[in-house]
Write a structure and sequence with these properties.
single chain; alpha/beta; seven-stranded mixed β-sheet; three-stranded antiparallel β-sheet; 14 strands; globular; binds 4'-deoxy-4'-aminopyridoxal-5'-phosphate
């Protein structure tokens, strides 16, 4: 028997209450009984996004929400600045190019975060920019971007700010309205504690005015179509009814715990992971680390790909490896969504056992001792 633990930055573990909600009998999505559920879900999402704006619920993964958002507000030929410090920042650039936009793809070193002054400079060099696309937590590097400060810069221009908060919404502080963010997108399989399959696009007033002008081709993910249905508390196509029932439950749990407490929990657990890993000699990879996922450099002489494999196959603990050129060079451990103290400690224990087997020299038990100390502070 092997008990499995998911310590990846998505998909994440699903609480039993949410899984049971998902197993309820199917409701017809055009039946009157579905309307109060959609209403409740919308209110719950507005709390999660910290906004009074509408939030389109798409049947897709997070990338669908990115595509829907960008094609919803920009047309072919429009200038779009994409900040690319990792795999997901690059995705903004690739979507913009796929739809014929004029993408100014600003590459920054992986592991670093773009600074507000750099965005200011880019906007002054490109005054005709229609949208700036950034990533709140760049999951491939673990970097957290100061979205609040960047929104302050972008909101003074004519460009819209599109924030990919796929891995961070519900884990890190993000206040869409107070921070003046135009568009926020996220997915279901991260801090929201659902299985993969739903994605969300929240749009403010300034953005809603721009949507009617977009000439980008789109159909299923058309933001205009989704927002039109949403105004009638409906969905344009058959939604993933079971996932919406599960979402209703997850949002109830989020409200009950309270967003600020959830942000604190994520901070606490990631500090325990950082402390535990630090004590056995693992170094953090990124310069501005998030509480979403902890990226760690693979120690010299250790096979980077073997660490996640051994954790998964021998101890039932799934963590993530590095992506693209970071493959084999970093590992990523997340306590995202439905995670508590002893998920973090189990992760550290398994990591100690695996690294010992792989030949790393360190004081046995130092990691778990440091993690427990961090948790008790
Ligand atoms: N953006 C970020 C920051 C992500 O972490 C992910 C998923 N790892 C995505 C976008 C893409 O989402 P999906 O895989 O759900 O399409």
């Amino acid at each position: 028997m092997q008990k499995r633990l998911l310590l990846t930055p998505g998909p994440t573990m699903v609480p039993p209450e949410v899984a049971s909600a998902e197993a309820q009998p199917i409701i017809h999505h055009r039946a009157p009984e579905f309307i109060p559920i959609l209403k409740r879900v919308q209110e719950g999402l507005q709390y999660l996004f910290q906004t009074s704006n509408p939030i389109a619920v798409l049947t897709s993964s997070g990338t669908g929400a990115m595509e829907s958002a960008l094609t919803g507000v920009c047309s072919p030929g429009d200038k779009v600045i994409t900040i690319e410090g990792g795999k997901f920042g690059q995705r903004w650039g690739l979507i913009a190019e796929a739809f014929g936009m004029n993408a100014v793809r600003e590459e920054i070193e992986w592991g670093t975060a773009i600074q507000p002054d750099q965005v200011k400079e880019l906007l002054s060099q490109n005054p005709d920019t229609k949208a700036v696309c950034i990533t709140h937590c760049e999951t491939s590097t673990g970097v957290l971007t100061d979205v609040k400060a960047i929104a302050e810069v972008v909101s003074k221009s004519d460009a819209l700010l599109l924030v990919d908060a796929v891995s961070s919404l519900g884990a890190e502080e993000l206040r869409m309205d107070d921070w003046n963010i135009d568009v926020v997108v996220t997915g279901s399989q991260k801090a929201i504690m659902l299985p993969p399959g739903l994605a969300f696009v929240a749009v403010n007033k300034r953005t809603q005015e721009r949507i009617s002008q977009s000439k980008s081709p789109s159909y299923y993910l058309s933001l205009k179509t989704h927002l039109k249905s949403l105004a009638k508390t409906s969905t344009p196509y058959t939604p993933a009814v079971s996932l919406i029932l599960a979402l209703d439950k997850a949002l109830e749990m989020i409200k009950k715990e309270g967003l600020e407490n959830i942000w604190k929990r994520h901070a606490r657990l990631s500090k325990a992971i950082q402390a535990g890993c630090g004590a056995i000699g693992l170094e953090i990879f990124s310069q501005q680390p998030s509480h979403v996922v902890t990226p760690l450099k693979v120690p010299e002489g250790i096979d980077g790909a073997a660490i996640p494999k051994m954790l998964r196959d021998e101890y039932g603990v799934t963590i993530a490896g590095g992506q693209a050129h970071l493959k084999g060079k970093i590992i990523r451990i997340a306590t995202l969504g439905y995670a508590a103290d002893f998920d973090a400690t189990t992760g550290i224990c398994a990591l100690e056992l695996a690294l010992k087997k792989l030949g790393l020299k360190f004081e046995e038990g130092a990691g778990i001792k440091a993690a427990l100390k961090a948790l008790s502070e």
